[in-house]
């Protein structure tokens, strides 16, 4: 830590035994997506995959499952690969408090090696392939998309760096899905109100910290680059894209530049999504690419999406949990930890010390109004501060013995949710629910919770002893 680029991180993964290089010939379809699906099916400690012998491409390289396991996530944070998830969560939260760390501007980015202004053909540049059998086409789904607020272009924090699904429609035309709750959705609305196109830069193949932070639900004025600096403990390197002037990751493999066309919408999708279902086709904005910059023999980093768990779940697990934790703790110091790892936080578990009866239910409803909760947090499970929200056995114990179906359900009707939630009806609207599995306290006194069974003396000492012996 910090990693200058994707290549440096792959080298560390190889040293740690967390990278598998596959040099035998493979076909783009279905070999690459099948391999990316297979790894998390087998283990939560799986390696990243690097392919360099792809049929139809003389020098094409594809990296998959780069942060697709807990050891790889720990290495992304610069921690020992055996670090437990809960420890990674609190270390992530500790570094969040160091925000902001000013970015470092550089003018010697590796992606400046080659430039294409005419005859752009993304199918020649990248070994594109479909992820799932009914995808309408090929996608770029792990790139950092950068845009600025047209009404306040000099505000560094309002420059957004986010990850969105991007359909490759032809050699130089893309479709993109910016939701109204996304920062880029706000930028596009402001540009279209002016009757202007929205300039964008798309950085493909980035260091793992930038990828992680770009998927993080920050507030509108928080800079992803300054947060990346906080998470990696050193200023994050950025460089100015030559056509748009947007700030992009210094170490990217490829930088695409162009514009989202004002007022233009075309059918985008279907696409197999993180919900485990296809999204269907919807009319979405269109991007015209007019400039490409790239490194020699760029690595195309891609992300498999489908039924959880996949690399996406590992990548977004803590970068969703930590912002929710920080935003809730700001108002309620009694919040101990947040686990929003399930389907990007459509379901979240919060451990909280209660002030009084009904307090946990109020915290659960507050989570639904955080920036991320507006589109997620459909199901909230509240547990006592003594329950580890990352330990599903403990959470299910609390649900089975603390939760009372008559008293402990709060339903919020017709709330907002992301349209991709297949249960929403109409798309984007759903009921949300809080399950309160905390111990009732005054004035909400009921049940028979006199004395819990604690662990025998010296259990922790024996845990440490046995851990060393097992290892």
Automatic annotation (TrEMBL):
Listed GO MF terms: 4-hydroxy-3-polyprenylbenzoate decarboxylase activity
GO BP terms in the entry: ubiquinone biosynthetic process
Domain 3-octaprenyl-4-hydroxybenzoate carboxy-lyase-like N-terminal: 11-88
3-octaprenyl-4-hydroxybenzoate carboxy-lyase-like C-terminal domain ranges (all copies): 315-437
SUPFAM superfamilies, per the entry: FMN-binding split barrel, UbiD C-terminal domain-like
InterPro entries referenced in this protein's UniProt entry, alphabetically: PAD_UbiD-like, UbiD, UbiD-like_C, UbiD-like_N, UbiD_Rift_dom
NCBIfam families linked: UbiD family decarboxylase, VdcC
Cited PANTHER family: 3-OCTAPRENYL-4-HYDROXYBENZOATE CARBOXY-LYASE-RELATED (PTHR30108), FERULIC ACID DECARBOXYLASE 1 (PTHR30108:SF17)
Family membership: Belongs to the UbiD family.
Protein name: Phenolic acid decarboxylase
């Amino acid at each position: 830590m910090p990693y200058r680029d994707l290549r440096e991180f792959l080298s560390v993964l190889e040293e740690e035994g967390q990278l598998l290089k596959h040099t035998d010939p493979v076909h783009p379809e279905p070999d690459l997506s099948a391999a990316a699906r297979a790894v998390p099916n087998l283990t939560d400690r799986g390696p990243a995959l690097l392919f360099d012998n792809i049929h139809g491409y003389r020098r094409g390289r594809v990296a998959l499952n780069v942060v697709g396991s807990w050891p790889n996530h720990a290495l992304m944070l610069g921690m020992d690969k055996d670090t437990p998830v809960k420890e990674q969560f609190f270390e992530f939260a500790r570094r969040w408090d160091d925000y902001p760390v000013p970015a470092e501007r550089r003018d010697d980015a590796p992606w400046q090696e080659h430039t294409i202004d005419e005859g752009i053909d993304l199918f020649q540049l990248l070994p594109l392939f479909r992820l799932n059998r009914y995808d309408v086409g090929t996608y770029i789904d792990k790139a950092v998309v950068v845009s600025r607020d047209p009404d306040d272009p000099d505000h560094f924090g309002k420059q957004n760096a986010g990850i969105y699904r991007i359909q490759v429609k032809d050699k130089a035309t893309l479709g993109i899905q910016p939701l109204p709750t996304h920062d880029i959705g706000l930028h596009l609305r402001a540009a279209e109100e002016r009757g202007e196109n929205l300039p964008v830069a798309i950085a493909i193949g980035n260091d793992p910290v930038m990828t992680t932070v770009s998927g993080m639900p920050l507030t509108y004025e928080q800079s992803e680059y300054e947060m990346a600096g906080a998470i990696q403990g050193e200023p994050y390197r950025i460089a100015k894209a030559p056509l748009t002037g947007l700030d992009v990751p210094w170490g990217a493999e490829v930088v695409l530049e162009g514009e989202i066309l004002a007022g233009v919408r075309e059918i985008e999708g279907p696409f197999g999504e993180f919900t485990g279902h296809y999204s269907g086709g919807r009319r979405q904005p269109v991007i015209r690419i007019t400039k490409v910059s790239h490194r020699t023999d760029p690595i195309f980093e891609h992300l498999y999406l489908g039924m959880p768990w996949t690399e996406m779940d590992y990548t977004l697990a803590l970068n969703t949990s930590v912002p929710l934790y920080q935003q809730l703790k700001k108002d309620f110091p009694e919040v101990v930890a947040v686990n929003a790892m399930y389907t990007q936080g459509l379901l979240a578990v919060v451990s909280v010390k209660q002030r009084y009866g009904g307090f946990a239910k109020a915290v659960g409803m507050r989570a639904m109004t955080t920036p991320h909760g507006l589109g997620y947090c459909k199901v909230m499970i509240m547990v006592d501060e003594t329950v580890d929200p990352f330990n599903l056995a403990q959470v299910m114990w609390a649900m089975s013995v603390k939760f009372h179906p008559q008293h402990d359900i709060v339903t919020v009707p017709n709330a907002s949710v992301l349209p991709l939630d297949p249960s929403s009806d109409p798309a984007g609207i759903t009921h949300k629910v809080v399950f309160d599995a905390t111990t009732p306290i005054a004035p909400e006194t009921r049940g028979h919770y006199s004395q819990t069974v604690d662990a025998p003396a010296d259990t922790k000492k024996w845990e440490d002893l046995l851990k060393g012996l097992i290892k």
